[in-house]
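Table S2 (continued). Query chain:
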Amino acid sequence: MDTPPYHPPKKYSVRIEGHRTSISLEPVFWEMLSTAAAVRGQSINALVAEIDAERIRAETPPGLAGAIRIWLITYEKGGWITPAAP
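Corresponding output:
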């Protein structure tokens, strides 16, 4: 079994609606984000802006990096995962 690509988060610069911001993501998540954007025919900035808009509408919005990780995991599984009721 291969070892997962453990690596601490790195800062990446993105633009959301013309504003520069940085996000801290592990390189494996950045690679997943880049791949998802390419598959969808979007720039990374456009995809991050879409994820940001979705997260802001959430009842309890996570931070942007956390929202990106959650989005990537659900995207990889083929759609949104409906959480179980508490």
